């Protein structure tokens, strides 16, 4: 399970703030990825009605500043995840050969953006599709456009903040089952001061997520910063990481075969009932159900209860006494 620290628009265009936030994520957390929102062509992303009211260019960074942040992360043990909001961002961001990139749910079916990304990735690039608040038709359309086998479907959406009843874990589980060949992630947007913030994230993670994403800030609860309502502190982020490590151990490898602990538990005799002869048996007799009984014992049998039942009708090749443990070597080899 990989952890993603989301910086989003939280920096509000402040180079110094973003620099300090990235430094904190590098030095004080065990996050796997630091996620950066690239926006280079605000006119492609925003309509004039927004641009007239907000100087968006002042809320993001230029290529030189992004280059600084990318190289800063590259020098650390962390990896970068790029959320690409416009075609210029795709062309610039892919130059750095990122391992994982994302198309946000607000752009999920922007055909120009999807086609530009498709032409700039290879089979090794993990493509995250944000699918929160999207219909299955929209999700399927984006998948068909990207045409990659290396897709991560990122569940969860931001409605400032996300309420319990809007998370809908049962729906998320159904979507996971619909796309078993893809990886899945959960981007949590619970309120920063929600007492069950970490618990909610763990609930979603337990569905089998391979990626968990949280907004993180060094200005916890500060309303002057965008995305403040769902941005958790470094301390909370580390608390989540510790709990996810426990959850990850509990999740196991998913294999149906018994693990070593289960095999130890399932010993026939000390744990599960073993078979014993109910009466004296003569060599050459054929095993019947009325000849045996099952009991727990200090003795260990090399036959499971099913093994014994499958031995019905088998020839016993040596005399056995009432109360003896039924063992595999008592039977004539076929």
Describe this structure as you would to a colleague.
There is one protein chain. The protein is an alpha/beta fold. It has 2 domains: about 1-250, Aldolase class I (TIM Barrel, Alpha-Beta Barrel), CATH 3.20.20.70; about 260-330, Antifreeze-like/N-acetylneuraminic acid synthase C-terminal domain (Type Iii Antifreeze Protein Isoform Hplc 12, Alpha-Beta Complex), CATH 3.90.1210.10. The chain is about 35% helix and about 15% strand. The chain is built from 13 helices and 11 strands. It has helices spanning about 15-30, 40-45, 50, 65-75, 85-95, 110-120, 135-145, 165, 170-180, 195-205, 235-250, 260-265, 305-310, and strands at about 1-5, 35-40, 80-85, 100-105, 125-130, 150-155, 185-190, 210-215, 230-235, 275, 290-295. It has an 8-stranded parallel barrel with strand order 1-2-3-4-5-6-7-8, surrounded by 6 helices. A two-stranded antiparallel sheet has the order 10-11. Strand 1 (about 1-5), helix 1 (about 15-30) and strand 2 form a beta-alpha-beta unit. Helix 1 (about 15-30) packs parallel to helix 4 (about 65-75) and helix 10 (about 195-205) runs parallel beside helix 11 (about 235-250). The protein is elongated and about 100 Å long. The model has no long low-confidence stretch (mean pLDDT about 95).
